[in-house]
Amino acid sequence: MYPSRIRGYVQSDERGPTYYVVRTAELYMRVTPQTGRALAQTLRKWLRPRWVRVTDITGSEIWLRSRDIELVAESTPDQRDGQRKLTKQLEKEDEDGDAAPAWG
Q1: What is the spatial distance between Cα 10 and Cα 87, in angstroms, rounded to a whole number?
Q2: Which residues is 61 bridged to in the sheet?
Q3: In this structure, are residues 79 and 25 in contact, taking their beta carbons and an 8 Å threshold?
Q4: What is the four-CA torsion angle of 48, 54, 57, 61, rounded to 10 degrees?
Q5: Partners of 64 in beta bridges
Q6: Which of 9, 11, 100, 102 is most buried when burial is the number of CB atoms within 10 A of its CB?
Q7: Percent of the chain beyond pLDDT 70?
Q8: Maximum Cα–Cα distance across the chain
Q9: CATH topology classification for 4-96
Q10: pLDDT per position as a tens digit, 3-34
Q11: 26-44: b or e for each residue (b if 16 or more CB lie within 10 Å)?
């Protein structure tokens, strides 16, 4: 399912891996859970470093300005499945012209 060089870095089940997402204004990248937690801990410090080194799940190393990082978020298979269901429901409502959501 995953290239052999990254298989050991992601926690995976049959629905896909658990990873963290790092987003800036120009960049969206997936990182391992360990990298995501370490990055979040670094960004919570009182004196942040100006630059942080981030390695994505494919092994690419990127240096980012810490002030440019907008989001560090966990992404589990359950979260992604819920988001897909919500998106599908919203698209269906747009097609039907229904203003009231089906889940509420």
Answers
A1: 26
A2: 55
A3: no
A4: 180
A5: 52
A6: 9
A7: 79
A8: 51
A9: SH3 type barrels. (2.30.30)
A10: 555 556 555 556 678 899 999 999 999 999 99
A11: eeebbbbbebbebbeebee
Identify the CA nearest to 42 among candidates 31, 28, 57: 31
**Predicted TM-score of the model (pTM):** 0.67
CA distances from 1 to 12, 31, 56, 57 (A): 10, 17, 18, 14
CA nearest neighbour of 39 among 26, 17, 25, 56 = 56
> What is the amino acid identity at position 101?
P
Q: How far apart are CA 102 and CA 98, in angstroms?
A: 9
Are 18 and 33 within 8 A, CB to CB?
yes
Q: Which two tokens stand for residue 98?
A: 């229904």
What tokens does 77 get? 């298979």
| Calpha distance 91→103 (Å, rounded) | 14
| Domain positions in the chain | 4-96
> How many residues belong to the chain?
104
- What is the C-alpha to C-alpha distance for residues 19 and 76, in angstroms, rounded to an integer? 7
Q: Look at residues 15, 95, 66 and name the one whose alpha carbon lies nearest to residue 87.
A: 95
